Request: fold
Amino acid sequence: MTSTAGTPSMKDRVVIVTGGGSGIGRATSDLFAVNRSKLVLVGRRHEMLEQAAQSARDRGADAITVARDLTEPESAVHVVQRARDEFGSIDVLVNNAGVPGEGVPLHEVSDDLWQEIIDTNLTAAFRMCRAALPVMVEQRQGIVLNVASSAALVAMPRMAVYGAAKAGLLALTRAVAREYGPSDVRCNAVCPGTTATSMTENVFDSSDRNAAVLRGIPLRRVAKPSEIGQAILHLCSSDSSYVNGAVLTVDGGQTSRWKALL
Reply:
């Protein structure tokens, strides 16, 4: 279903967005809100979630918040139960929660740092899928959208663990698409390139580094969070009803340049 303005309609769809309080998650929740979705915003920081929820309500959407650390094993079950108690169903799950890369050589990565990055960027998404998929199968419809990274596609210095976690998320995406497609559950992923969020502030900590990053992007600018959100919205709408198991790279051509240099 598409609105008269040409925007994919998500009206009354129940949408869970993890990491929904800031960055790509916040921009994505705002876009779903404009489409009058019913939002369940999940994250660690209660205040930021409430601000995002109020922004959604100001746009005409229903929105609730669930302040939970998704690295805790039972959090996913709690989130799914809250969504069902409040809205009765789950139509879309956007696995966006994550932490940035390690910024150190692989031989300096501690077990604790490895576990933190894997747990937040991969295990949390697995647990959210495990909790939400039975609901979607029962409904005979649902959409899972995983937010990966261009680091899953090409090797980046000092980001081996982050790249491994995000590459694992792509494998999970394809597995869910294949296994649950017969139940009319679609699963896709987006791979953002460098995006202007609080997670990437260290990328722009000097003018020289900023210039170096931009030289590597054919469009010569970083992404706005809303540009990633638009790609997410598209893959979660009926305009993408036959798209399943796909990976959409949204990076201004950044990884195509790196691949050309290999």
Observations:
- Residues 111-139 form the longest helix (29 residues).
- Residues 1-6 have pLDDT under 50 and may be disordered.
- The first strand starts at residue 14 and ends at 18.
